[in-house]
Amino acid sequence: IPYSLLPERVTAEGAGCKVVYVCRDPKDAFVSTWMFANKMVEAAHVLGYWEASRRQPEKVLFLRYEEMLRDPVGNVRKLAEFMGCAFSVEEEAAGVAEEVVELCSMDTLKNMEVNKNGTQNHVRNEAFFRKGVAGDWSNHMTPEMAARLDKIVEDALRGSGFAFGATAESA
């Protein structure tokens, strides 16, 4: 947490609090974070939900973020149906699914007053919103890095029937 977000009862002069901050070389921090995230994939985070959705499709809906971006209205309809509250003919005619997509859009959420100025546990809400786009990794990784990451993920998912580059039909 940034120093500026520590509570005043900690940072105020005369507060009697001492702070110890341990910094880490960003390259090592990146690798450590990556290894943790990779273990999450291996430790059934993605695979557990993928397998559960295949075993019990009536109980677990598995959605892909990139597919949600490509077809937000179709995915809102799919979600509504899964939750047992599919849109009625009248709601469809009135454009309710499209309204839900607009209300939940990244732009709408980012521009809500609470998300521009609110905080959660001393972290500004705006920190939870970035771009919300697919493929931004290409602005931060070399093709070689991406290929290496793809190989690691492919190895972790081997035999599961799931692949991140897969089409919606395989989901």
TrEMBL record:
<dbReference type="GO" id="GO:0008146">
    <property type="term" value="F:sulfotransferase activity"/>
</dbReference>
<comment type="similarity">
    <text>Belongs to the sulfotransferase 1 family.</text>
</comment>
<feature type="domain" description="Sulfotransferase">
    <location>
        <begin position="2"/>
        <end position="41"/>
    </location>
</feature>
<dbReference type="Pfam" id="PF00685">
    <property type="entry name" value="Sulfotransfer_1"/>
</dbReference>
<dbReference type="InterPro" id="IPR000863">
    <property type="entry name" value="Sulfotransferase_dom"/>
</dbReference>
<feature type="domain" description="Sulfotransferase">
    <location>
        <begin position="44"/>
        <end position="161"/>
    </location>
</feature>
<keyword id="KW-0808">Transferase</keyword>
<protein>
    <recommendedName>
        <fullName>Sulfotransferase</fullName>
        <ecNumber>2.8.2.-</ecNumber>
    </recommendedName>
</protein>
<dbReference type="InterPro" id="IPR027417">
    <property type="entry name" value="P-loop_NTPase"/>
</dbReference>
